[in-house]
Amino acid sequence: MTTLRESSKSSWNGSGSIEHINAGSLQRIADAVETMSGSYADLIHERDLYARQSNWNFERADRLVRSNAALRGVITKLKKRLKEPKA
Question: Is this prediction's pTM over 0.70?
Answer without folding.
Answer: no
